[in-house]
Amino acid sequence: MTLLRGMGAEFLKLRRSMTLWLTVLFPLLCMLAFGWYLATTHRMTWDNLQETFLIWLVFWSAGGTALQAALAANMDGQNWRALLARPVEPGIQLGAKYLTLLVLLLLHALWFSVLILITGLLLHAEGEILWGSLLGAPLATTLFVMPMLLLYTWLATAKGFGWTIGLGGIGMLVGTLLGTTSMGDAVWMYVPWAWPFRFPMMAHALSTNWPQLLFPVVATVVLTVTVLWVSIRWFRRREW
C-alpha cells in the first residue's frame, strides 16, 4: 500500500505540470498533423495511419520520454531532503516515481492508438482496421522503452535536466538511424534505443526467426532490473 500511496502522491504533484500535459497534448497534436496530411494527400488508409505510430515513436521513445522524466525529476530536485525526512523507505519513493512515469508512458501510447482509431473512423480510412497493431503497439512500446525511461529518470535525479535531455537527443538520433534504416540490420538487437522502432518486425520474426524476438525481450527485462537495482541502491546511499 505504501507504494500505491506514493504513486498517488506523484500523480497529485504532476496533475498541473507540463509532465502530465505532455501525455495528453503531444499525441493529440501529432495526430492532428498526421490526419491533416493524410486527408489532404488522399492517403487516408489504415496502413498509413498505423505508420504514424512509428513516426510518433521517433519523437517520443527517446526524446519525449527524456523530457518527461527530466521535468518530473526536476520537480523534486530541491525537495528530496524534505521528502526523505518522511518515515518512508527511500527506495519506495523512487520506485513510486518510476511506476508513475511508466503508467504515463502506457497511457500516452494507448491514447495515441485511440486517436488513430478515431481519426480513421471519422475520415473513413480505406482498408481494414489493424486491431492487432492498435492494441499491441502501446504494450510493446511500453515494454521496450521501459529501461530507457528508468535510466532517464535516474539520470535526471542524479545529474539534472541538461544531462537527461542530452542523452535523450543522442538516443533519438541513434534509435532512428539503427531502428528504421538498413544501417542497423546487424546491430539493432544490441542498441536499446532501436528496440521500439523494430517491434513491428518482431511479430514477423516470431514465426520465422524467434531468437530475434527473444533477445530484445530478455535484454529489456535484464536491463530494467539492473537499472532498478543500481539506481535504488544509489538513491539509498546518497546524502541530500
Automatic annotation (TrEMBL):
Pfam families tied to this protein: ABC2_membrane_4
From what superkingdom does this record's organism come? Bacteria
Annotated TM spans: 20-38, 53-77, 98-123, 129-155, 167-193, 213-235
User: What keywords is this UniProt entry annotated with?
Assistant: Membrane, Transmembrane, Transmembrane helix
The name this protein carries in UniProt is: ABC-2 type transport system permease protein
What organism is this sequence from? Thermosporothrix hazakensis
